[in-house]
């Protein structure tokens, strides 16, 4: 296991390097994809400041279905193209939303969430699902977060053999 060091979040390069090092320590050599994703959600929730939800939705039968997460109970199913998560899945592009109340069709699972970042998880051109992180702070996420979390998703894809049913 890893020990949580005091990493300055304001130095995003150092922070995300540390986050990915922690992730690799947790999942390297572990074949169970569900255990790895569960630990990944917990790691994000523990280390990223000013967030109130971190987790995964998986693409199944034409919609997104809730996977492992940390935070309040969440919406279980999200149609493709709906809300921030459905938009990220449909467009296969990172969604960086400074104010969720200004996002057309936002799905409010937690009324305290003010901003959100969602990254599609794609492996070998196959949509696996999305990584979703919410914050109670407006404009909480920026391009540095998008870049750092994209490396986080790349690390997951490197270590995880996704089952066919997700």
Main traits of this protein?
single chain, 166 residues, 4 helices, 6 strands
Number of helices: 4
Q: What is the averaged pLDDT score?
A: 93
Counting helices, strands and paired strands, the structural category is: alpha+beta
CATH fold group: Beta-Lactamase
CATH C-level class is Alpha Beta
What overall form do the CA principal axes indicate? Answer: globular
Please identify, by name, the CATH architecture.
2-Layer Sandwich
Number of separate domains: 1
Taking strands numbered 1, 2, ... along the chain, how are they ordered across the largest sheet?
Answer: 3-2-1-6-5-4
**What is the strand content?**
25-35%
Helix proportion of residues, in percent? 25-40%
Query: Any idea what the CATH superfamily is called?
Result: GAF domain
- Written as H for each helix and E for each strand, in order along the chain, the element string is HHEEEHEEEH
Supply Rg. Answer: 15 Å
Count every beta strand, where a strand is a DSSP E run of 2 or more residues: 6
What does this structure look like?
34% of the residues lie in helices and 25% in strands. It has 166 residues and is of the alpha+beta class. It has one domain: Beta-Lactamase, CATH 3.30.450. It has a six-stranded antiparallel sheet, sandwiched between helices. The longest helix has 17 residues, at 143-159. The two termini are 27 Å apart.
